[in-house]
Structure formats: C-alpha cells, structure tokens
Design a protein that fits this description.
This protein is α+β, with helices and mostly antiparallel strands. It has 3 domains: about 70 residues, 2-Layer Sandwich (Beta-Lactamase); about 100 residues, PAS domain (Beta-Lactamase), CATH 3.30.450.20; about 40 residues, no CATH class. It has 6 helices and 10 strands. The protein has a 5-stranded antiparallel β-sheet. A 3-stranded antiparallel β-sheet has the order 1-2-3. Strands 9-10 form a two-stranded antiparallel sheet. The longest helix has 23 residues.
Length: about 240
C-alpha cells in the first residue's frame, strides 16, 4: 500500500464522501470526524471500518493525517442479526392469536402488550402500558389476582389459570391465562398469554341445556325409554310401566 493513494482502497460509492471530509480537514487544519466506510481487503472483498483521524502539523513534512482503523464488519453483522431477530419477535408478538401482556415481576406494572391485548380489554396500548396488572381484573377480585401473579412470578415453569378480564366498558370476559417468566438483563418479567373462552363457555352452556332437556324428556316419558351410545351400550333409560 506504500506510495499508493489510500482512496484507491475505498469502495467507489464511499470515495467522494471520504475524500471530501479528509480534504476539508486538511484545509481547515482540524481533525475530521470519525468516519465509517468500506475498505477493500487483499482478497477483493470489503470490510466496514471506522477510522479516527488526527491532523498533525509537522515542521518538516507539513500537514499530515494520522489515524487508526477498527473493523466493524462482525459487529455490524451481529447488530443486523439482533435487529432482524427483534423484528421477527415483534411481528410474531403483535400478530399472535391470543392477547399477550408483559409485566415487571417486581412492580406488577405492564411494560408491553400486543394488538389482541388492546382488543381484549378495549383499551389502547398507551392506556395499558404502566397500568398495574391487577387492574385487568374485577375490582373485588384484585387481591386474588395479585396472589396469582406472585405465584406465576415465582414458578420455575409455565402456569395455567382461568380468570376474568374487566374491559374498559365494564363487561367481563372469561379467559385462560398461561403465565411464564422471562429474564432480560437483570429484570424478570411475567408474560401472560390470555385466551378468551367466551365461545367455549357458551358452547358448554348449550350442551348442558341440551343434556338437561334430554334428561327431562326421558324422566317424563310415558313409555319405557332406553338410550344407547354409539357402541350400543346403555347409558340412560327409564323403567317400563
């Protein structure tokens, strides 16, 4: 590289910007800002480098530029990988079929929610963030749900509970909560996945109503009634008169 102009090794797309900054620094007699650009390697590939430079006024050689370079290629690759992972997580989080609430186990305050959490509660994300998790439930049962939260927070594995969510309009929604702790740095959070079971409850009620009606019909029948299951085994009936 000795005797060759350093710009020969700078990626052509970055070259005008780098030369402009270096020439301005030489003209002003001030050190240029920290620069990031792509530098050609011996094998022809390019590495992203960060250069810190200093202008030195040498009595014999005049103004010279000294600098040190740091290879950012691997650091940028890891940074991009982290960014992609965070983006994928955010996409999955926001588009999950169930409502997801994340709360600080130390304070009980909600730190993040997804779109279905907004739909479930009838509240905006801005209203939910910073709210105590116990306020997701009916006022008269908040002490109970605080205990549930503490139990989930201390459990080494996932926990499952049924609960009621208090919507902003005052209505109640039955849910199943799957709680599990996650640790980020020095902070432990509880992730609660809330799945609505209103449809399931209605289906169970209709089934019970049908079974009750069936029992009444059998009990009040004037003639003898025998009920078989699909394997032709008797599971209900009345005595013949």
């Amino acid at each position: 590289m000795t005797g060759r102009h350093f710009s020969e090794f700078v990626l052509p797309a970055d070259r005008p910007r780098v030369l402009r900054d270096f020439l301005k620094a030489a003209k002003d007699g001030k050190s240029p800002p920290v620069l990031s650009y792509r530098l050609r390697r011996k094998d022809g590939s390019y590495s992203l480098i960060e250069q810190t430079s200093t202008i030195v006024n040498d009595p014999e050689r005049g103004t010279i530029l000294t600098g040190s370079m740091r290879d950012l290629t691997e650091a940028r690759r890891v940074e991009n990988l982290i960014s992609e992972t965070e983006e994928k997580y955010k996409t999955l989080f926001d588009n999950a079929n169930s409502a997801i609430f994340i709360a600080d186990t130390g304070t009980g305050l909600l730190t993040d929610v997804n779109k279905n959490a907004e739909k479930l509660t009838g509240r905006t994300r801005e209203e939910l963030i910073g709210m105590h998790q116990s306020r997701l439930h009916p006022a008269g049962l908040r002490s109970h749900y605080k205990q549930v939260f503490r139990r989930h927070s201390k459990s080494p594995g996932p926990q499952l509970d049924t609960a009621q969510v208090l919507r902003k309009d005052g209505s109640l929604v039955p849910v199943i909560i799957r709680g599990a702790t996650i640790r980020v740095g020095n902070v432990t959070y509880l992730q609660g996945i809330f799945t609505g079971i209103s449809a399931q409850k209605k289906a169970e009620a209709r089934l019970e109503e049908a079974l009750s009606l069936n029992r009444q019909i059998i009990a009040n029948a004037k003639d003898g009634v025998i009920v078989y299951d699909r394997d032709m085994r008797t599971n209900a009936g009345t005595s013949l008169p």
